[in-house]
Amino acid sequence: MTTQPARLTVLAGPTAVGKGTVSADIRARYPQVWLSVSMTTRAPRPGEVDGVHYHFVSAERFEEMVERGELLEWAVVHGRNRYGTPRGPVEERLAAGEPALLEIDLQGARQVRASMPDARFVFLAPPSWDELVRRLVGRGTEDEEERERRLATARVELAAEPEFDHVVVNDDVHRATDELVRLMGLAAG
Question: Which residue from 46, 75, 100, 171 has the highest number of Cβ atoms inside 10 Å of its Cβ?
Answer without folding.
Answer: 100
